[in-house]
Structures are given as C-alpha cells and as structure tokens.
Amino acid sequence: MFQVPSLADLNLGVTLPAISLAFGACILLMVDILFVPKDRKIVTAWLAMAGVLVSFVINLLTFNQAGSAFLGAFVADGFTSVFNIIILVTAFISILLSIDYLKRTEIERGEFYSLILLSVSGMMFMASANDIVLIFVALELLSIPLYVLAAFRVPDVRSEESGMKYFILGAFASAFFVFGSALVYGATGTTSLPGIFAAAEAISSTGGSSAFLLLLGAGLLLVALGFKVAVVPFHMWTPDVYEGAPTPVTAFMSVGAKAGGFAALLRIMLVGLPTFVIGDSQTAAAWQQSFWIIAALTLILGNLVAVAQTNIKRMLAYSSIAHAGYVMMAVAAAGSAGVANQGAQAAVLYLLAYMFTNLGAFGVALAIEKNDGTGTNLDDFVGLAKSRPTLALMMAVFMLSLTGIPLTSGFIGKWFVFSATMNAGLVPLAIIGVITSVVSAFYYVRVIVNMYLRDGEGDPAEGATPYVNWAIYAAFAGTLIMGILPFLATNLTDTIAIASTVVR
User: Fold this and answer.
1) What percent of the chain has pLDDT over 70?
2) How many folded domains does the chain comprise?
3) Domain around 108
C-alpha cells in the first residue's frame, strides 16, 4: 500500500533555492496580469530580479549544505550550490539585458519574465536531480518556456521559425530521453541514480543483455542531453535559433540551457554510471570513448564553421557549439578512474567562465542591434572603437577571453579543462583542443580588427541603455576578476565532490 510521505521525509528546506523561484514565477505571473499596467512592465522586471536575488541569497545561506529531499530524488551539495550560482547570475544579467530591448522592439509583455524564472527553476532542478524521472520533469520545465521565448518576437518570421525549430528538436530530445530512461530502468530496475550506480557495478561484472540495455539507454540519454547542450551531431538547431530569437533570449539560452544540460549529464554519468565498464577495462567508464569523440567533433566543426560566419549572432552560435566541446572534454576526462571529481570541477569552472564572457559578448551585440533586428553583421562593428570606445574595449576583452588569452576567465577555464584531460590520458583530445583554440583566435580577433583597425564612423550603439550597460559591466568585471584572481572561482568549485562514492 502506498504510504504518504511526511514533511520530514520530503525535507523541503534543502529545496528552497529552486522551490522559492518556481513559486515566485507563478506569483509574478498573477501579479503582472492583475496589478501591473501595460505601460509599467518595468515593475514586473524588477520583481523578477528581486525573485532571483532572494533565491541567490537562500542559495548562499545554504551553500554546500548536504541533504536530500523528495525521498532522495533531490540532492543538495556543493555541485548543486555552484550550479545555482551560475544559473541565477545568468538569469539576473539576462533580465537586465531584456528590459529596454523589449520596450524598443515593441514586444514588452510581462509574461516574458515569468517564463525566464520558470526556465531557471527547471535548470536548478536539473542540477540537483538525483533521479532520472526528476531530470525529465526538470528538462521539460527548462525547455517549454524557452520554446515560447525563442518565438517571442512575433510577427517576426525569423523568431517564429526559431521557436518552431527549437520546439521540434526539443520534442525529439524528450522522446530520446524517455526511451533511454526506459532502457536504463529495464536494465537496473530503478530510476534512482544511486540505485543505478549499485546495479551498474553488478552488471559490469556479469555482462549479458543487461549490459547492452544499459549501454544503449545511456547512449540515448546522451543524445537527448546532447540536443540541449548543442554538441555535434545534435547541434543543427543552434545557429538558426540563436539568430532568430530575441537577443536577450539567445544570450540566456546560450548559457543557461547549456549549464542545465551539462549539470544533468554530469549527474547521470558520475553519480549513476561512473563504474559501468565493459570488458577488461578497469580504468575508464564504458561511455568515455563516445564522449571524447563527440567532444573532438564538436570542437572541430564549431570552430571551423564559425570562421565563415558574417553575422555576430551566428558566429557566437557556432562559438557556443565549440565551447560545448571544451566542457565535453572535461566530462570525458571524468570517465577515468581517479579523475572524476577533477573533471566535474573543470566542467563547472569552464561554465562559470563562459557565463560572464558570453553574456557580455551578446550584451554588446544587443547594444548595436537595431530595433528591427538588423545591425548584427560583423561589418557593423567597424569603427566601434571611435564611436563607443568603452563598449569596444569590453567587447575586445570578451573576444580575448573566448579565445583563452591569459588574465581572462576564459584562460582559467581552458587551463583546468586541459589539465583534467591530460590527467585522464586523453592526449589526442587535448591536442585537438589546443589546435581548435588557435583556429578560434581568427574569428574572435576579426571582431577586434573591425573595431580598431578598419576605418569607419562606428555604430552609435543606441541599444546601450543604462540597464544594458550595467549587464555588460557586470559581465566584464566577472571576466577580469576571475582571470586575475582565479582562486575566487576555484574556492567554489573545490567543494564539488560529486563522484566521491566511486570505488574501483
């Protein structure tokens, strides 16, 4: 007979950062509809930022406090806390970028901010999920608001196309995830990640059909989350969606969706399947080879195709694909015995660095974008150093950080990713990573050349309103502080011990 869990069993206290934001999003939607006039939607934006700040403070107060909730389906630990920081800062900066953009493009509607908060709560649940069922629910909570946000700039045909493509491919991803979950459950008899971990050890020693089912199920889960983080060959939606979606939404999904997807991927592989091996291998998980091959393909395609782009949003889209490859390097490295925690820490550190840099780059792109969505070609950056020298300087730093130049956050992220990869013995992957980083310098430095070395009057950057400037300044400060004082970031990620239960 089913036993109703008590409040003590649910242990809702450890879920407060995510739960408070989810409830806040629902309350904000009702408040906006009932009390906020159409010409005062800035009030809704401020309330949304207040909700994010409340969740951020709660997360800091409960930072690195271990616990579980919902009968073990939800887990709070250092991994959860650091990912919550990445996701909440992403949301806050994205809302700042959105306030004036929505007004000047005449798409200012209050539900925009509620959708942002709902998607953020889904990302936070993905980072803390300890059960495949909760990961699926969180994945849908993350994705469905993003489908609407991508198409938010109606009747713009490109935005409608963006939302439709994202929805169709998201539906495919959900189907793959459900099918993969069913196969994993069939092989292990459980959807709990610790339960899968225990069953995987036994399956590794006995082999048989269960090993095949588990490997196939894990592969389908990788396909599903591969769509979300935009790795090759599941990247097809990224350029069109990024180009067509409203720029603040593009910035938000380029970081937030990637963070949520990688959080779930790390949970599944390092909590549920770290000891799943096939054959005589005792040093690497069965899934490691697939991960490093995907990482290599992602690095090569993302960087090479980005070279040919003439639109800043499409260039940053392929750049985003390439950066997913660097994070995937760390995930692949985590499949080696003794490197699991280092790989997880490197992946989280890279996402933290990428958050500041990419949000800042999209913020500058938004500043020069025209009200009709034009003005995002690389030629529109010509002479920007003359018309808006401060904006050009910050964009130059963002481009250098994406390249991985020292004294920027991007360099710190790549340092730790390459270190984990080498410690895992994946030398060919590390070499590919270095070569593709050199290739990326071409298209990043091209933006700097346009701003400083080509003659032109320069764009007036009318979109650089106070709110947008605050967002860019915040991203710029984060990029430099993390690059110059990396211990501030490593002190956070050093608390991550997601694979501490692994025994080989």
Assistant:
1) 95
2) 1
3) 9-493
